[in-house]
Design goal:
Blueprint: E1 5-8, H1 18-33, E2 37-42, H2 52-65, E3 74-75, H3 80-92, E4 96-99, H4 103-110, E5 134-137, E6 144-149, E7 153-158, E8 166-168, H5 176-186, E9 191-195, H6 202-216, E10 224-228, E11 231-232, H7 248-254, H8 258-266, H9 281-287, E12 298-299, H10 302-315, H11 318-329, H12 352-363, H13 372-380, H14 388-396, H15 399-411, H16 419-432, H17 437-449, H18 457-464, H19 466-480
Parallel strand pairs: 1-2, 2-3, 9-10, 11-12
Antiparallel strand pairs: 4-5, 5-8, 6-7
The chain binds glutamic acid (GLU).
């Protein structure tokens, strides 16, 4: 095949939808696989729902995912003159006709009939184009329009079931079916790979394209279409901003790795074959084929994504893990950091060496980077933030726990302070109280770290040092008494 030219055409909405990210990935993989070009066109012509910073959101999300376009993004508004020229040509050729029907008037005429949509009232009125007059497309009454879709095969639409749709609003603005088509033609797009929700628009665009060809007296090659399957939630509903976490930025802020996200998105509706759960980008490029994309809805399983992310985190080498954690634990001025997630400690209390020492232990225990601060906060806070309910249950209401804390506090006065000795000491104290280590260490963990779970206790205590550990033990005894 000649080098393809593909695009995504997101509308700026203030966030980048994971469905758009999956579409971007499939387009990108296809372009990479066939030595083509991947471009981005921002559909920015809905002036009310469009802000400059929303364009940045799209660019930043693609950048984070590692799917930068091969050319600078273009905007639909750049093509306004081409939309107008196409509208004029179609109007002059008779493919579009003027219509000034108000929706109420159409509804009144259709009342009591089985017809829906538009009733063709203005088809032969010969209304002049002008303010207050929309332009509708004269859809043939008979025949069918067939969408040749790489994923779905041929999908036939009866022309009689397609209403005479509005292509140009009464204020002169081209609507989606027309503007999107004109842009794709102007940009030389060879393959339109987009969401299934646009399948019903495609016959309208094919009709418009044929009419444009006729009006121009020249044929522009139609792009190949591929409508990728919907993403649905556990209830099999299309995922939406209202009920599901759909913003790519949200996952970035929670500490998902771009590589895990891409791996997960790539397998939504497509499979590279084999049983491997972890599939890297190169493998995806080598194996990607639009023909192999599934047409049934794909389950956007956040639990699966989270699990996969944990596997990607564990696969990092320690240095890379430490670096990846930085925005969450030691954000730098002027650099990206996750929204609303400043670390709970004062920046000067963060100790990179302590963090580096504990990092391998933490790396094994988190599924997202956003979980890291709460696992290590007790190293960098003056006093750990103690979970009150857990404290009452495990210490204040347990005389035995208080006795253990006393014993440990004394035993740690002058013993060696390494993980092994601390372990042995806790075993001995437990034995004195006829308690297994697991039970004996629970109140100690709570007193020292503030939590019932966390990184391995003895390594953590050794890192904290004798003074801090004993001070926290004494504070817990005092608080319980
Ligand atoms: N703005 C449309 C969307 O975001 C573009 C559809 C297309 O790719 O043609 O769904």
């Amino acid at each position: 095949m000649d080098a393809p030219r593909v695009r995504i055409a997101p509308s700026p909405t203030g966030f980048f939808h994971v469905g758009s990210a999956r579409t971007a990935l499939f387009n990108w993989l296809f372009a990479r696989r066939h030595g083509g070009t991947f471009v981005v066109r921002i559909e920015d012509t809905d002036a009310e729902r469009n802000r400059e910073e929303w364009v940045e959101v799209i660019v930043a999300a693609l950048d984070w995912l590692g799917l930068p376009p091969d050319e600078p993004p273009v905007r639909q508004s750049q093509f306004a003159a081409a939309h107008e020229a196409a509208a004029t040509r179609l109007y002059e050729s008779g493919a579009l006709y003027g219509c000034d029907c108000a929706r109420d008037a159409i509804d009144a005429r259709l009342k009591g009939t089985s017809q829906t949509g538009y009733d063709g009232y203005c088809r032969d009125r010969g209304l002049e184009r002008g303010h207050g007059v929309a332009l509708r497309f004269r859809v043939p009454d008979q025949g069918e329009t067939i969408v040749h879709d790489v994923i779905r095969g041929d999908v036939a639409f009866q022309n009689a079931s397609i209403e005479d749709f509005v292509a140009v609003r009464s204020n002169g603005a081209a609507l989606f079916a027309l503007s999107n088509l004109v842009d794709d033609r102007a940009m030389g797009i060879t393959h339109v790979v987009r969401g299934e929700e646009h399948l019903a628009n495609t016959p309208k665009q094919l009709l418009l394209a044929a009419a444009l060809d006729a009006a121009e007296g020249a044929k522009t090659a139609a792009p190949v279409f591929a409508h990728v399957p919907l993403l649905v939630n556990e209830q099999r509903q299309k995922i939406s901003k209202r009920r599901d976490p759909v913003a790519v930025e949200l996952y970035r802020d929670r500490g998902f790795l771009a590589a895990a996200m891409l791996n997960f998105l790539g397998l939504l509706g497509w499979s590279p074959g084999g049983d491997d759960e972890m599939v890297d980008l190169n493998t995806m490029i080598e194996r990607f084929a639009l023909e192999d994309v599934n047409h049934s809805p794909a389950f956007f399983d956040v639990a699966k994504l989270t699990h996969l992310n944990g596997a990607y985190i564990r696969a990092l080498d320690t240095e890379a893990f430490i670096e990846a954690c930085r925005p969450w634990v030691a954000p730098r001025e002027g650099e990206w950091c996750p929204a609303d997630q400043a670390p709970p400690w004062a920046p000067e209390r963060f100790d990179p060496e302590v963090f580096a020492a504990v990092a391998p232990l933490v790396q094994e225990r988190v599924a997202t980077l956003g979980e890291v601060p709460s696992m290590v906060d007790f190293f960098f806070l003056e006093e750990p933030a103690i979970d009150g309910a857990a404290f009452d249950k495990a210490i204040a209401n347990q005389p035995e726990s208080i006795a253990i804390l006393h014993d440990v506090h004394s035993a740690l006065e002058d013993c060696a302070f390494d993980a092994e000795t601390l372990h042995r000491t806790l075993v001995e104290v437990g034995e004195r109280h006829a308690l297994a280590l697991r039970k004996a260490q629970a109140p100690v963990r709570l007193a020292v770290t503030g939590r019932a779970v966390g990184p391995p206790l003895f390594e953590s205590m050794a890192l904290l040092g004798r003074d801090t550990v004993r001070r926290r033990l004494a504070a817990a005894i005092a608080a319980a008494g």
